[in-house]
## 1
Amino acid sequence: MGVYTVGDHQIPFHNYKEAVDWINGLIPFGIRPGLERIELLMERLGNPHRRLKFIHVAGTNGKGSSCAFLTQTLMECGYSVGTYTSPYITKFTNRFQYNDQDIPEDTLLSIAGRLFPLVQEMAESEQGSPTMFEVSTALAILYFAEECYPDVVVWETGLGGRMDVTNIVTPIVSLITNIGHDHMDVLGDTIEQIASEKAGIIKPGIPVVSCVEQPEAISILKETAIEKNSTLYLLGEQFSFERTQVSEDGQGVRFRGPFRELEFNIAMLGEHQSKNASGVMMVLEVLRQYMAFVLDDEHVLAGFRATFWAGRLEKVTDEPRIVLDGAHNPEGAETIAKTIPEVYHYRKLNLMMGMLANKHHSAYLQHILPIVDTLILTEPDFRRKLDAEALLALVEQLREAYAKTDLEIIVERDWKKALMLLQSRTEREDLGVVAGSLYMISDVRATLLHQTDSEKGW
């Protein structure tokens, strides 16, 4: 590794790849909930986050899609938008976008160079080294506050809310998409515990929008909003939606809010996307009504129509028809199982699946098995992958109760060979689906779309 100097400091990387390798090299420090290290980092940099307007987005599923709706619609309305999301589908730079464009590699390199000495200094102190996600978050803040100056930043939580690194910011409005079973090893194993973590993004006096539906989660959000003196806009109470039409090309949504009714179309599939879009519409209504955002209906509707989010019920090839979906928890599986038969017509459904070792797979399989004709079990190319044989053992336990009687199961550890099997077995009248870990979805997507610059990661 080469060395070059920034100011008085020697930096041990001199190209984009080495900078990303350094950031990813911090992964072994793990996920360490708490804001002390990021607060210290920001203080040393002059608190650049205080100069930005954030829309903070938390939730178990639907965060990425909601961020995409917000970004596209605000851009369509003439605002410049920074977007910070994770994990990424194609390249590390996807995490940090300005007006839908990735951070330039040389900008990432120079900001990483600024952060390196601070991170080293902290690593040698009692705080210990910042984690990979903390350094990425600091990098995002510096990019938006000192390089591109967006009007607004769409800011996705990494994990939970309360102790998540992104919670260092005070937003202009918060959005909590939904609450389900994910990251239970960190967030707790009941809906109440997970809801308490997500509700941690609610700030004093800052309005919050939510599409959460479980009564026990709703009561926690309501209590927190009262305690923080924040106005809560809740799906089913302050706003609602209904779907007006559904096809392979998208769906129509009728939104009813406290200020007005509006009909719009989205290209994204599934009732869950109508719900995500309605939550975002409520956020936009709050911005329009109370924060003087100029959001003309024509541009708002065009933004919703144009929104796309890779790897979410995304049809990537027509011959054979193959759809990708990065659903990896029970709620995501329930959504796939409901949406695919509603939207697509097919004779046989062939599903290729690969998972990480830390998820709730039994409940996932209970939702997905009833719709599958051929199941191809494989493994993501990732260090925390779940062994395909272990996944098979789980399927066999559930087979009798949930699967079709003639379900065919194939185990192929190598995901590339598994993909070739899926392609060869999916005939013209059939549908091929690749589901599970986003790490695998990103590899499969790059292969099917012939993308040569694909990286992948959290």
## 2
Amino acid sequence: MRKGSLWGSDKMDTVKIYTNIIKDNMDKPEKVNKLINFGLTAAYYYVSFFKDKRIPKSLHYLNKYSIKSIKDSLANPQNSAWVNLFAPSEFLIAMDIKPLFIEAYSSFMSGFFIEDYLIDTAESRGMSNTLCSYHKTFIGASELNILKKPKFMMTTSMICDANIPTFKYLSKKHGVPLYIIDIPYKYSKDAVVYVKKQLLEVAEKLEEVFNRKLDTDKLREVVKTENKTRALMREYLNHAGEKRFLPTMTFEMYMLFASHVFIGSKEILHFYEMLVEDIKRVPERSGKSIFFIHLLPIFEKNFKDYFNFSDKFHIAGSDLNYDFVDEIDENDPFKGIAEKLILNSFNGEINRKVARIKELIEKIKPDGIIQFCHLGCKQSMGGTVIIKNLASELGIPFLYLDGDCVDKRNNQEGQNRTRLEAFLEML
């Protein structure tokens, strides 16, 4: 597979053959499950034993961890919960429940090159073609019974307008308990109390469904670990503007495992400890750095060719990985997590997101900004002009492109190449 893909090497022919075997058996969900599990296992051992020397130790660690987390969640659905990227998974970590988040699963299915089949299945069952492809891929896998139902589902009302209808549909289809956490747009004491009350209900529901108690001291320990992790995130950012760290497109998106769903785990704390040590050791900044807004098109050929292990251009970061970097109240973790959800820079009015982007840009000092507007994501596309105006105000070249982070059929490679090359040449 090409650079930055699921396997992290150039074994494209092997993967395509394997993809065709999976597609030929889509009417046999048990067999497809075994094939996907075998593929994930093979990927895990491949990246464990055939390490790319261009990749620092921290990203090797993250690569293995991300693959393993998906594999473990799928292997034991009765100890798993389906969540979205912004769900408060601290409760799951504290109760040893495996989270499976929609966005990651769909990305991995795109890495297997079967997202088109899953998306077409979802649309044939009545899903709108304008629905986010992350959600359509996940729904398609559910429709084909490739995904075994979990014991619980949890999502939030914030950011993504597809979350609630998708989770409601899946909950009804599988008869699985669902809790939707309603997040107010604006921060206030009343808003914190409102969300905290819901989080207490979530904890009670998890205890009921999984027949185990939430240890509040363990939840506090998870939050304490999360605070240590966020301190390391801030330290990393202090170096990001001065150093030439070289994550690939895929690794920058893998960072979402660490900055969101699994933050608070000891493994992710260890990852950030390694990451900070790695960035301290890399050379001083050279070439041109690009800061990404929202998502990165990890399967788009032009972006892979220009940014993966390039001497000329490197990824300076993306705002989605730093949507919240402050400390959480360790004494009252329910209150602390409620505040975290409300204060997320992606929650509420666009001005909050723009202010966060400005902070990150002033710290990282990138040479250019790229916003890849993922089709179906109104949140991303709706703020483009405002972010473009911010870039103009800061005197930084800005490029936006429309495309799809999952469904490769929606990317116009020729048009993307022309605009991307013109932008990079300008830098």
